[in-house]
Every structure is written in structure tokens, then in C-alpha cells.
Input
Amino acid sequence: MITLHDVLRVPAMTEKAMSLKEKNNSIVFKVHTDADKTQIKKAVETFFNVKVDRVRTMNYKGKVKRFGRKIGRRKDWKKAVVVLAEGQSIPDFV
Output
């Protein structure tokens, strides 16, 4: 069972994430691969004291990379786009 502290990994600070924040009042997080949308919504509402309107998730497969003669693979990861309700914001994010 995943606890709320394990659900959110790190906020994604990319150019696309920043444009989503400005246009759609959305925050992008890298999340635990087993977390579902209701757990993500509850975690964001609990930790940041905001009202979440919608959550969208995407799963990414890790890239295959060479390490010398050996072929390895990066970890799979999951991204969540959290749309905040009208008038809500998280001031800690740039």
C-alpha cells in the first residue's frame, strides 16, 4: 500500500510544465508508478491545501542505454498533470 508521502516524487520543472502552469493553472509531478488518480488528487490537496479539479496521468517506459559493453535500461516512470480549481494556486512553485 502506498502512503500519501510516497505518491508525489518531484515536481517537473520543464518548459512545457511552466507553460501549462501559466495557461491552464496546472502543476506537473513525477509520481509513484503504482499511484492512481484518486491518490494523486488526495496527496496534492493534503500537502498543498488546494482544491484539485482534474488529474491526468501518463506512463513512460525507461530508455534502453549502453553501459560499456552491457545494455541496461532506465527505470519506468509516471507523470501526473494536476489541474487546480479556478482561483487556486500553489505559491511555492516558480
In short: The mean pLDDT is 94.
